[in-house]
Amino acid sequence: MKKIRFKVFETNSSSAHSLCIYGVKMILGYERETSFPLEDNVIKISLEDCEFGWGYETYTDPYNKLKYAIMLVVELECRKFNTVEEIYGTEGFQLIQQFVPHKIVIIDDTFGNVEYKCKEGHPYTYHRHAGYIDHLSLSGYSCLNSFLKDWEVDINTFLYNSELELIIDNDNN
After folding, report:
1. Contacts of residue 42, Cβ cutoff 8 Å, sequence gap at least 6
2. pTM beyond cutoff 0.90
3. Which tens digits make up the pLDDT trace of 7-28?
4. Integer Cα distance of 65 and 115 in angstroms
C-alpha cells in the first residue's frame, strides 16, 4: 500500500474506507446523540444491516458510525467467539458502550464458528457472521482502539462529531 493522501486508506482493492476530518479537533464534550432508534429503550443492531464495502456512502450520523464501530469489533476482536453474547465482553464493545447513552443489543442468528474438513481431511474453522467491512479496510488493525489510534480520534469524537465523515467507496464508481 502506498500512502498518497494523509489519513486516507487507499489500496488497489475494489473498495476503500476513509475518515475525513475538516479542521476538527477532538473535544471531550460532544453532546451525545439521543435520537438513536430505540426499541424498549435499547439500541438493537442487526449485523445484517452492517455492510460496509461496496457502495459509495458518506456517514456523518452517530447511528451509522456506531454500526461501523460495532462491525470493527466483530471483525477484529471476535474471531474465536461462538456466541453474540461474547462480543459484549470485548474491550472495543465496552469502550463503545461507555459513550452510548442506551444499552446496545447485537442481533445475528448466524454468528459462530463452523468446522469444516478440507479435501485432505484437515480441520478448518470458519468464523461466520452477518455484515462485513471490506477486508483490506481492516488491514493493519488488531482492534477498535488501534483503528481509533491510527486515525488520531477518540470514540466519542468518532461517533458524535458530524464534521467527521466516514466515507465508503469503491473503484466501480
Report:
1. 102, 103, 104, 105
2. no
3. 554 555 555 555 555 544 444 5
4. 32
